[in-house]
């Protein structure tokens, strides 16, 4: 060892290893070329995707797969827009058939305006999916009791929200995220709420294994540049977590020696 | 000339030839090769069964694929 720490060792979920600790969504971009450019810039290896009806009137329109190829990126199908356990399970069964993989993101949402996770429905859907052989990364409330229960059921990653989906409010309750991380034996990701690079860095400094975001990049004025910022923020936050922050002090503690001052 | 039957695909009514299979429906729609999944009356039709699964009058189908999402 030459004293310079090794590059990040990466993280593992459901037996799959990833170097990047950033998972990005593929929605809300201006068009598919911008989606591709932003995802490339983010360095993400896993991307979330939605399952929707094929447009029957124009079945030849360009598809996400042509721009974000599933052989280069791990597709993580989501259940965005599902408000019942039944709809979520049905959606992911279709996703498994379309893609041929078991690793999925479960989210069952409560009503607007907060779209806060509906935990009763989330437990119900998680149980059905786990029994059906899925590997479930689960979006959930920032509730340590719920998070532990999901882990004990067999979910492969716990993904509490930082703040409501698409709100850009950052990590609203860092103490509870930290509490969830402290007790977890599976990866913990902050999912939803990230607004800018410092939010992503904070989530990583709390000890998250990775961060999942979409709107913070897609709704930035310059999405590709923000994607690059997020890549750097997640890496910086991880390093800061490993390095261990200095203690906070209410009083000044000068860095320069007090001895040898001119008089 | 076989008769036509009415089915529902992604919420739209549609006529297909009597005895048509799921695979033939996909060809009619113009979905050549892409990664789609098909559900018929709330049951998944695996890709391996597309050719052997015949459509019946009143069937409700969902044909889905992956799109951008967060």
TrEMBL record, chain A:
* Described function: Catalyzes the rearrangement of 1-deoxy-D-xylulose 5-phosphate (DXP) to produce the thiazole phosphate moiety of thiamine. Sulfur is provided by the thiocarboxylate moiety of the carrier protein ThiS. In vitro, sulfur can be provided by H(2)S.
From the UniProt record, list the coiled-coil ranges.
Answer: none
Q: Which family does it belong to?
A: Belongs to the ThiG family.
**Pfam families this protein is in?**
ThiG (PF05690)
What are the entry keywords? Cytoplasm, Schiff base, Thiamine biosynthesis, Transferase
Give, as one word, the top-level EC class: transferase
Q: Which residues form the Thiazole synthase ThiG domain?
A: 13-257
Kindly identify the residues recorded as the active site.
105 (schiff-base intermediate with dxp)
Residues reported to bind 1-deoxy-D-xylulose 5-phosphate? 166, 192-193, 214-215
Pathway in which this enzyme or protein is active:
Cofactor biosynthesis; thiamine diphosphate biosynthesis
Location relative to the cell: Cytoplasm
CDD domains reported in the protein's UniProt record? ThiG
The species this protein belongs to is Falsiroseomonas oleicola
Subunit annotation: Homotetramer. Forms heterodimers with either ThiH or ThiS.
Tell me the protein's name.
Thiazole synthase
Q: Which reaction does it catalyse?
A: [ThiS sulfur-carrier protein]-C-terminal-Gly-aminoethanethioate + 2-iminoacetate + 1-deoxy-D-xylulose 5-phosphate = [ThiS sulfur-carrier protein]-C-terminal Gly-Gly + 2-[(2R,5Z)-2-carboxy-4-methylthiazol-5(2H)-ylidene]ethyl phosphate + 2 H2O + H(+)
Enzyme Commission number, as recorded? 2.8.1.10
* InterPro entries noted in UniProt: Thiazole_synthase_ThiG (IPR033983), ThiG (IPR008867)
């Amino acid at each position: 060892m030459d004293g310079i720490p090794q590059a990040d060792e990466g993280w593992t979920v459901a037996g799959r290893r990833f170097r990047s600790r950033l998972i990005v969504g593929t929605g809300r971009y201006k068009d598919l070329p911008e989606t591709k450019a932003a995802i490339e810039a983010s360095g993400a290896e896993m991307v979330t995707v939605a399952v929707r009806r094929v447009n029957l009137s124009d079945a030849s329109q360009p598809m996400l797969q042509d721009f974000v190829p599933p052989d280069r990126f791990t597709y993580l199908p989501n259940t965005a827009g599902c408000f019942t356990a039944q709809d979520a399970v049905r959606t992911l069964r279709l996703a498994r058939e379309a893609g041929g993989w078991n690793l999925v993101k479960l989210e069952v949402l409560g009503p607007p305006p907060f779209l806060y996770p509906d935990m009763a429905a989330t437990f119900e859907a998680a149980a059905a999916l786990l029994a059906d052989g899925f590997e479930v990364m689960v979006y959930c409330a920032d509730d340590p009791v719920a998070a532990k229960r999901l882990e004990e059921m067999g979910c492969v990653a716990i993904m509490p929200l930082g703040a409501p989906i698409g709100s850009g409010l950052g990590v609203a309750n860092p103490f509870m995220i930290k509490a969830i991380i402290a007790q977890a034996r599976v990866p913990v990701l902050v999912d939803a709420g990230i607004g800018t690079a410092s939010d992503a860095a904070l989530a990583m400094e709390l000890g998250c294994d990775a961060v999942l975001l979409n709107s913070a990049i897609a709704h930035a004025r310059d999405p590709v540049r923000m994607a690059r910022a997020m890549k750097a923020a997640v890496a910086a936050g991880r390093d800061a977590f490993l390095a261990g922050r200095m203690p906070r002090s209410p009083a000044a503690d000068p860095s320069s020696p007090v001895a040898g001052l001119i008089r | 000339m076989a008769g036509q039957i009415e089915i529902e695909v992604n919420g739209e009514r549609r006529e297909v030839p009597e005895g048509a299979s799921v695979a033939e429906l996909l060809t009619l729609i113009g979905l050549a090769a892409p990664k789609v999944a098909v559900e018929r009356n709330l049951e998944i039709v695996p890709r391996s069964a597309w050719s052997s699964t015949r459509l019946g009058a009143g069937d409700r189908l969902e044909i889905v694929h992956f799109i951008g999402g967060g």
